[in-house]
Amino acid sequence: MPALLPEIDLDARDCQSCPIRHRAVCARCEADELEHLEQIKYYRTYEAGQPVVWAGDKLDFVASVVSGVATLSQTMEDGRTQMVGLLLPSDFLGRPGRSTASYDVTAVSNVTLCCFRRKPFEEMIRSTPHVAQRLLEMTLDELDAAREWMLVLGRKTAREKIASLLAIIARREALLNLDPGRSVTRMELPLTRESMADYLGLTIETVSRQISALRRDGVIVLEGKRTVQIPDFDRLLNETGDDMDGGVLI
Amino acid sequence: MPALLPEIDLDARDCQSCPIRHRAVCARCEADELEHLEQIKYYRTYEAGQPVVWAGDKLDFVASVVSGVATLSQTMEDGRTQMVGLLLPSDFLGRPGRSTASYDVTAVSNVTLCCFRRKPFEEMIRSTPHVAQRLLEMTLDELDAAREWMLVLGRKTAREKIASLLAIIARREALLNLDPGRSVTRMELPLTRESMADYLGLTIETVSRQISALRRDGVIVLEGKRTVQIPDFDRLLNETGDDMDGGVLI
DNA sequence: CGGCCCATTGAGGTACTTCAACCAGAGTGG
DNA sequence: CCACTCTGGTTGAAGTACCTCAATGGGCCG
């Protein structure tokens, strides 16, 4: 039995001190709107490896990820699985207007969700434009990310795929640590090799081999299996195959 | 020089008789809201093969596709390209709040757009919830479609990819023809082999070979290069690798 | 007719998968 | 304490699905 989750005080109902206050679906809310949200919200936690919900199952809340990492994935009958979303802190889970989950959701680390009961939340979308606006913005961002990922899946080599994933994680890490200018040079991978493979449409063997190759070539430095140093971020970007100077979507 | 586009009377500013009235971003609008939209809208047409806009270029309108087919695609420096969106009639083009195009947009058939100047449209999103709500719904649908496509790109075989694409086109065709129950058994492919390859992350040779294989196996019947008959739709669905009886996303 | 575009087909190469062995660390139980 | 097992990861050898390169064909247009 793992230790209890320490990070968040689950009784702290105070949105003002919430770590994802300015990035989540509630980012645009005024004080009175937050108050309304606080009435319909509650926290749930999941241990690393636990399922949050299976595709097709009833899901009568939507939620913001407060801490931890969860994945959305699809599985075919014969077991092939593809990850289709990576939920990091501040990301939104669930679809207003739909009462069942479309994808398998799994906590890959210990996860805390800030849940909103579906019906009241849908009502709020209709009544408070600030929530609807932010949700639209976040959904458009996710759509952009999904399209970026389609290029990775459809056209990049295994090596480029790995480099792309590392770059994305590093960027999000930097964003979270409010480390805007300098990109992180050391980070903890939130995903196992298997999850990385599911994300990239590869096998775990190929993931492992390409990570080893990037290490051999000095693009990354491993400390243990999960901690990665990136000595030269531009060098890593070069390996992604992306246009370097082009308008980066952060 | 191709013939002039015959389908739409460009002076017909009447939203009421618009073919995409109940599916486009304006679907939820009341009479007075439509009137407002009519003041900021104008039509543009593009010939088959013409670019609508390049990624990074200024795009000071958003639009609904009224007729024809356009594609969104991304191209890497070395020329590899991946299609990331297929815009059919009623689909929405552009992102409110962003003044430059994120992707290359190309008309693959003759296309008519119903354009809205960006600024007034953004203002309308803020002021008329019906537009914002519909846009959110459409964006969520697109996100679902993108995620479905990530499974195709990441995990399906070439044969399954082709079958999936044919099934998707057939379903959208049926939806457009208001042919809800029976799926279409004959349809015109709106895409060249090259576009199909770009969509599926394949080469045109592989596309061609797999289409030939499906024809040899009796899954499809070709009439010329672009017209496809589907004798048994369930047979085709079987070839996609998808869960047959599972909740279909129409 | 020749030229062009799109599509098909073949032959050979290669990047990734598959199958299998092996390794390191952590937990378990004698 | 050591043997054990389990999980996540690495590495090797062989197989294969798809790509690359190249030739061919059919429809359309000047």
TrEMBL record, chains A, B:
> What are the record's GO terms for cellular component?
cytosol
Show where the HTH crp-type domain sits.
156-234
The molecular function GO annotations come to: DNA binding; DNA-binding transcription factor activity
Out of the domains of life, which is the source? Answer: Bacteria
Q: Does the keyword tRNA processing apply?
A: no
Gene3D superfamilies to which the protein is assigned, alphabetical: Jelly Rolls (2.60.120.10), Winged helix-like DNA-binding domain superfamily/Winged helix DNA-binding domain (1.10.10.10)
Q: Which NCBIfam families match?
A: TransRegFnrLRhodb
- Protein's recorded name: Cyclic nucleotide-binding domain-containing protein
Organism listed in the record: Mesobaculum littorinae
Give the lineage.
Bacteria, Pseudomonadati, Pseudomonadota, Alphaproteobacteria, Rhodobacterales
